[in-house]
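lol ok so funny story. i was supposed to be doing the assay writeup but got distracted and ended up predicting the structure for this chain instead. priorities right. anyway since i did it might as well share w the group, maybe its usefull for someone
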Amino acid sequence: MLSVWSMYCNRMLLPLLAASLLCITATLAVPRAFAQSFVAPASPEEAGVSSERLARIDAMLEAYIEEERLPGAALVIGRRGHVVYARAFGYRDREAGEPLETTDLFRIASQTKAVISVGVMILQEQGRLLIDQTLGDFIPGFDTTTVAVETDDGGFETVPADRKITVRDLLTHTAGIGYGWGPGAERWEAAGIVGWYFADRDEPIAETVERMGDLPMDAQPGEAFVYGYATDILGVVIERASGMPLDEFLRVEILEPLGMVDTHFYVPTEKADRLTVVYSVTEDSGMERAPDPGHMVGQGMYLEGPRKSFSGGAGLVSTPMDYARFLEALRRGGTLDGARILSPKTVQLMTVDHVHDAWQGDGGGFGLGFGITEEIGWNGLPGTPGTYAWGGAYHSTYWVDPAEEMVVSYMTQVIPAQGLDDHQRLRALIYQALVD
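and the output, tada:
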């Protein structure tokens, strides 16, 4: 009798039990996979956000468009792993009457810096560099540098640097390297290296950067926060340490793993109709279409340029959703949709203050590629200590608030952007919509 029962169990019950377990496993796996996907839809309320209060953002941005204070703007908000808001307002091209869409391409300028900074940290995790290595290890022309010091007669004298520049100095903008407008500006101008725009240069970025090593810097390494070419130089460090062109390294290590399909140094020809038009907003003239093809304050060379200079400091174009995916990966500790680009400990290292007294900002500091909020009582707007953020020259901005499990990606194309307070209003309206 026992053997018959054993045979029955082996032939009938065990297969049924296995099938049941398989079913249970599959049922459990679906929500887990769903939760991993940042693009999965969720009602705002499911993520602790009020739909009614989010509508105040609609009213605010619609008013900016109607009042011709902005040509167009696109905003993506993520909370607790879900996209709770993704909308575009106004026009990609006002004169042509083309409405702006969330899939349109924006020049993100200095928002490129965060992507490059992550690239550097990927290389440290791979054992290919250490951020406290000297810059001269990768670009010999920077092994010995000089600093321009102003003199009483309005000129400058050149003195040796007190120490060698490190990769960390570049990540924190404390290398003393500006945008060519410092005390030694005449030397930088003579070398043809002034300003952040590189899309029109008919040479690889490494050739431009190598010439910088012979020019006098604005401050001694580690002495002050000096915003400038540091991240463009880091782009060359990435090329030297990885043995890959910068665009290829970013594609392999960051863009493809995170599904950032619309982030490029130059606009692919098949996406040309999605590139937004640049406008200028001044208090005297109001809003005007910037020159075409123009230079850094105009439409630029992202379509018709030589496509040779991969500027790590200001060269990428992207979409609000692509950049939000990048931010969400950082918020989750370096991973998104099963792809890991960094470890949580590296993200932690990047998003704490490294510059201390060198930072002269309000209530914050600077990490390895990000501005850091340390105190929230400085500007009268809501926020959270530990938030990290930055923005771009075309009036785009972003932030990650780890405590609130939130990412914000806001893009428009305005330079200059005089008299605008949309960034401040957006911050107030986004935080007031959080109800849980």
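The first strand starts at residue 72 and ends at 79. Confidence is low (pLDDT under 50) at residues 1-35.
back to the writeup now i swear
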